[in-house]
Design brief:
single chain; 390 residues; mainly alpha; MetI-like fold; two-stranded antiparallel sheet; 4 strands
Length: 390
């Protein structure tokens, strides 16, 4: 700060050389993240886990993988960690590539280290894809509920679009032609019946008249759907759906994603309820911009901070759910190795081969703890009130 004296009055001006340099939002976030030791430790562990998972995908996939997690060596079963294979009992070409079993072998002689690497990639894929599905659904539904609020839509419209959307799903789940014809026939028959009665001058049936004119707010519709989904225990709902569908990696990811969108929906709705009253939204409406443009171009970028925190914590939850399903035998089917089925294989040998339980159990603990610490750190950093204290 400098004082300059003129002929009339002294003036105070800012000395730009003495002002602290301005930081961009990304550099400020990175500074606060490094300051939070627990969150930064979680980020480092997550980065290491990501590198290991990608390396596991590259080393354990293909026709001739470098590390074969499905290679059976019955003569080498239940070997302890860091043990060297016995040359007289190992068939040519089946010895571990590193010359020793880093994490031992299971009851079939399979290399636990190779199986853990493959399980890391499976867990990472399930976590990210499932959370991506849930976040996408949550953003769309939460944004619609928060922006439109109590703007009414017709119940008849809801049922009509429900039939249109449900037809392809029924076609995939049941006999395709029969399901498609049934849904289309029901929709067409309903519309034709109402049209014929109106043309003849006959009164429309009470049910059809009620469905045509009764309206419900967008916010009420979305939040009642959230309340219904929250009434069901998530894990048991996932377990029931997975038991009815063919087991596969894609089934697990889709089912977890479709049953875990409620928290994101509530977060996005709360942010939209606050942001839609801001001046920049009113200015966008005054310019004649469409609702979709305002939602996705102006409001959505300002509402993603809590969604990022929720997604980080959701990845840990999705990975734990997949491990639980695999442990119970309803997860990713063989020959894919997951941390859950490695735990399941080791429960019968917990005293004879404890490494089969400790190896995946400790890794699951560390990885999930890292995601939770990183998510809690992001929550503190992205919270304006807590950010001012730092």
């Amino acid at each position: 700060m400098k004082t300059i004296t003129t002929a009339h009055t002294p003036q105070t001006v800012l000395d730009l050389d003495l002002m602290p340099p301005s930081r961009s939002p990304w550099s400020e976030t990175w500074r606060l993240l490094r300051k939070n030791r627990m969150a930064f430790s979680g980020l480092v562990i997550f980065a290491i886990f990501f590198i290991i998972a990608v390396a596991g995908m590259l080393l354990t996939s293909g026709r001739k993988p470098v590390l074969d997690p499905a290679q059976v060596r019955l003569q080498e079963k239940l070997r302890p960690p860091m043990s060297v294979p016995i040359p007289e009992t190992v068939v040519s070409g089946t010895a571990p590539i590193l010359g020793r079993y880093l994490l031992g072998t299971d009851d079939l002689g399979r290399d636990v280290f190779a199986r853990m690497l493959q399980g890391a990639w499976v867990s990472l894929t399930v976590g990210f894809v499932a959370v991506g599905i849930s976040v996408l659904i949550g953003i769309v539904l939460g944004g619609l509920a928060g922006y439109f609020g109590q703007r009414a839509i017709r119940v008849g419209h809801i049922l009509s679009w429900s039939l249109v959307v449900a037809a392809p799903i029924l076609a995939l789940a049941a006999k395709p032609l029969a399901a498609l014809l049934a849904a289309a026939g029901a929709l067409a028959g309903w519309a034709f019946y109402a049209w014929r009665r109106r043309r003849r001058g006959e009164p429309t049936p009470v049910l059809l008249r009620w469905l045509s004119w009764t309206a419900i707010g967008v916010d009420d519709l979305v939040m009642r759907a959230v309340d219904i989904m929250l009434c069901f225990p998530s894990f048991f709902l996932i377990l029931t759906v997975v038991a009815l569908l063919p087991p596969s990696l894609y089934t697990i990811m889709i089912v977890i994603g479709l049953t875990s969108w409620m928290g994101t929906t509530r977060l996005v709705r709360a942010e939209f309820l606050s942001l839609r009253e801001q001046d920049f939204v009113a200015a966008a409406r005054a310019l004649g911009l469409s609702d979709l443009h305002i939602i996705f171009r102006h409001i959505m970028p300002n509402a993603l901070a809590p969604v990022l925190v929720s997604a980080t914590l959701g990845i840990a939850s999705a990975m734990l759910t997949e491990a639980g399903l695999s442990f119970l035998g309803f997860g990713v089917p063989p020959p894919h190795a997951t941390w859950g089925n490695i735990l399941s294989d080791g429960k019968d040998f917990i005293f004879d081969a404890p490494w089969l339980t400790f190896a995946p159990g400790i890794v699951i603990l560390i990885v999930l703890l890292a995601f939770n610490l990183f998510g809690e750190g992001l929550r503190d950093i992205l919270n304006p009130k807590l950010r001012e204290r730092n």
